[in-house]
Task: structure prediction
Amino acid sequence: MLIFVAGLMLTVPGCTDLPRTLSGWDQRGAGLDTRHATLITARDGRAETQVTIRKAGTFGIAADQSGWIDVARGSGRPLRTASFGAAVPCAKIAKIVYYELQPGTYRVTLRKLQQPQVKLMLVFGDRRRGFARRTRVG
Result:
């Protein structure tokens, strides 16, 4: 039995240390922030929350399930995606979508969710350091 468990441990990939920008993923808090994750209730596959940005930069929304993530200023149209981050399966992060954001309040809308709750975290990204990849648009 002990040999079986040891062999199983060798075949299951371990979760490497998360980058500093994702270090709060396992901490729970209220509201969308870079220091912790939050749970948002979804209805009919949709969820919505707000986030306030204090300093301009590239920010991502990390989610624990797949679906559409849109960010818009106020009641305006969704912003263009800056890039996409890789999933982190061992941390149960399904996707990260990055946007170039200026100071202000933004509406975050999630659609096509499969679970009744979605775990989210705001991620500060810096494409120059490889936390996000530039994608081709068009």
